[in-house]
Amino acid sequence: MNPCFQSGFGRQRYRYIAAAGRFLKPFHRKEGLLVTASEDDSVRLYDVANAKLIKTTYHKKHGADRICFTHHPSSVICSSRHNLESTGESLRHLSMYDNRCLRYFKGHKERVVSLCMSPVNDSFMSGSLDHSVRIWDLRVNDCQGILRLHGRPTVAYDQQGLVFAVAMEGGAIKLFGSPV
Predict the structure, then answer these.
(1) 1-10, pLDDT tens digit by residue?
(2) Is the dihedral of CA 90, 70, 54, 48 positive or negative?
(3) How large is the C-alpha radius of gyration of the chain?
(4) Residues near 23 by Cβ (< 8 Å), separated by ≥ 6?
(5) How far apart are CA 17 and CA 115, in angstroms?
(6) DSSP 3-state helix, strand, coil percentages of the chain (rounded to 5)?
(7) Pairwise pLDDT comparison (5 vs 145), residue with the higher score
(8) Where are the domains positioned within the chain?
(9) Fold of domain 20-177
(10) Fewer CB atoms inside 10 Å of the end CB: C or N, the chain?
(11) Bigger pLDDT: 6 vs 151
């Protein structure tokens, strides 16, 4: 059985990966918006209710891989696909409104495979193939905390932002209290 399924949206088709306990949810929590990152290094913002493409931006220097909304509907966090070794800029806070990079986040040495925004504050987590989970704050360039793990991590917050989970290869899930 194929671990992926596809759904059509306009002329584009996007895969939502359900393999290995992951399900990418690129929807804004409150607004009817969807954001996608594509292999052509584009980021697309959609109005879901009207099935309309709102904006497309291109990010050729760093690429676009994993993506999630911040609390603001025109602001996203995007992981890089290119130049990780030379720049170390593994994550970017992007404004979809004016196509600007608001902040770079340096730290991961390999590709980011999981992103999750806190539902209650400006912190977010990233999991990387460098076997680490990093906790960040949108207002600060530096990493606020690091978990060193064995294997590929997947990260998620609970809906109240009190607990976060890290799933690892082999099916282990560790729960942690969120920093306040």
Answers:
(1) 222 233 333 3
(2) positive
(3) 16
(4) 16, 17
(5) 14
(6) 5, 50, 45
(7) 145
(8) 20-177
(9) Methylamine Dehydrogenase; Chain H (2.130.10)
(10) N
(11) 151
- For the beta carbon of residue 51, count every other beta carbon within 10 angstroms: 11
Q: What gap in Å lies between CA 99 and CA 107, rounded to an integer? A: 23
Terminal alpha carbon distance of the chain:
42
Residue 154 in contact with residue 145, Cβ under 8 Å?
Answer: no
Single pTM value for the model: 0.80
Q: Are 128 and 110 in contact (CB under 8 A)?
A: yes
Q: Which helix (H) or strand (E) holds 31?
A: none
- The DSSP secondary-structure symbol of 19 reads G
51 and 38 in contact (C-beta within 8 Å)? no
Question: Cα–chain-centroid distance for residue 50?
Answer: 24
Residue 76 burial (CB < 10 Å; 0-12/13-18/19+)? buried
Q: 10-63: per-residue pLDDT in tens?
A: 333 333 333 222 334 578 877 889 999 988 989 999 998 898 999 999 988 888
Tokens of residue 179, six digits = 């920093």
Backbone angles phi, psi at 87, to 5 degrees: -105, -30
